[in-house]
Amino acid sequence: MAIDNDQHDPFARDVERIQALRDQGRLTEDEASRLIAVLRGEATSPEDEPAGASDAATEPAAGAAQVAEPAAVPEPAAPASPRAPDPPLAPEPPVAPEAPAAPQPVVAESASGVRWLTTEMLAADLVVVAVEGLGEPRLRAQVQGAVLQPEGSGWRLRYRVDGGSWPLWGNRPERIEVEIPRGAGVQLDVKAGDVKLEGVEHVRGHMFAGDLNIDGATSVDVDMKTGDLDARIRPTAGRQRLVCKAGDLKVTLLRGADVRLTASVKLGELSVKGALLGRHDTQGLGHRYSGTLGDGRAELELRLAAGDLRVRTEA
To answer: Are 168 and 12 in contact (CB under 8 A)?
Structure first.
């Protein structure tokens, strides 16, 4: 099913990317249509949809004749025999106190206590740079429709376009550049647009369509639907993950990384180069790899449905 790209559509570039992935067989027709609907706000995210209604109980057909059964005549009950007295109850043993539950690890647990900049973006490219000594985030230049303000213990950056300010087809979307204090984190909420993060130590959130570039993070937890992800990271603690539905995933483990890695691709190629020690298995059209760099103090999961996954360690 061909989907027309309106010349005033701010999502035209991302729609074309999704259609290309569909044409390459990385997405089904249904998956492509649903992603485009989510992108344009015409549907909810697939993971937000209900799992389905439960089966209803079978009811008699409407209008069906129902014949009443004759009531049974109760028989006289036999006289009850005398009831023996109950034996005395034995005292119950004391209940042993429960052991405290073991703490459950959480994804990117090394990022606790971090102040977050939440980025709520629609049809714009975003650049975030961490700056030493900066007290509060700031926009490098004012962009119409972009609002940066405090929220809770962190901050929120909102950008949405209205019908009168949509970029023409073929033109680049708005580019928003933000500086944040070093040590702060970025939480992504991106419908469409490319994102570049420079020196940002903690990254989490989700993207529907667009490319993501991460350089210098120590803690990551990102879920992408369609687009390429290039990450240069240094995981040293906690459970972390990078997950992508369709696109290419490239990860460079920087010097000082100490991690136990699992990587999987359902449809595509997987290559690992460098100092990782592990095992590579082929599973049908996909691949799986598990290995360790250093002592394996951090856990990193890389998961890709369709595309090529490349991992290397910094020389």
So the answer is: no
Residue bearing tokens 């706000």:
41
CA distance 241 to 84: 66
3-state helix, strand, coil in the chain (%, to 5): 10, 40, 50
In a domain, 151, yes or no: yes
Domain that holds residue 183: 109-255
pLDDT tens for 181-196 read 999 999 999 998 999 9
| H/E element, 31 | helix 29-39
Of 210, 231, 255, which residue constitutes the final position of a domain? 255
Domain annotation covers residue 270: no
Total of domains in the chain: 2
Q: Does residue 98 sit within a domain?
A: no
Q: Which residues lie below 8 Å from residue 81, measured CB to CB, with a gap of 6+?
A: none
Give 83-104 pLDDT, tens digit per residue: 555 555 555 555 444 444 433 4
Helix (H, G, I), strand (E, B) or coil at 265: strand
Which tens digit of pLDDT belongs to each residue from 187-239? 999 998 999 999 999 999 999 999 999 999 999 999 999 999 999 999 999 99
From 237, 255, 273, give the residue that closes a domain.
255
pLDDT in tens, 170-182: 456 789 999 999 9
pTM above threshold 0.90 = no
Asked, for residue 227, whether it belongs to a domain, the answer is yes
Hey, how many other C-beta atoms are within 10 angstroms of the C-beta on 238? 21
250 in the same domain as 118: yes
- What whole-number distance in Å separates Cα of residue 315 and Cα of residue 312? 9
